[in-house]
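Good morning C.,

I know you're traveling, so I'll keep this short. The sequence:
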Amino acid sequence: MKKITIAAAVAAIAIAATAYASPYYALHQIKTALAERNADALAEQVDFPALRASVKTQLEASMARSIEATAGSGNPLAALGQSIASAMLGKMVDTMVSPAGVVALVNKSAVSPQAGAEGDADAPADGARKKAEYSAGYAGVNTFVVRAKDGNAQDGALVLQRHGVWGWKLSSIEIATALAGR
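The tokens, ready to paste straight into the viewer:
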């Protein structure tokens, strides 16, 4: 009887530990897919409908603030401009937030292994690339957040949502406040 109790306790601890570590593994899979520019592997790790909705909402809010600041609330053409821009933004986000679109963006971004190559004005003079700094942790039972850091400032976040007990998918990107304010 004692052996059965010990085996059950060990099994419960193993299950809890793997469930706790599962978002870290999902994050590793996303990083590997991006590094290999593997759109199919990336598509398995991303909830594209939720990600599109998240990006659209944030960009539309940023655009509304920008139009409000530029044109003011009394301008009747501002609303027309915002509705036209919103329609264009929706189509652009739908195209960009797809497996192929994300891989294409990564190929041109600082996440790309080719970033920091010769001719890049932002690359350090000695050719060494600065390692990305981030913090990762649970923001709830079903939410895992990865925040990029630049010194003490938070520059944005990736939000993974639980899909089942061990499955996690990227479902939201919190756009950096500096980018959102532009």
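Safe travels,
E.
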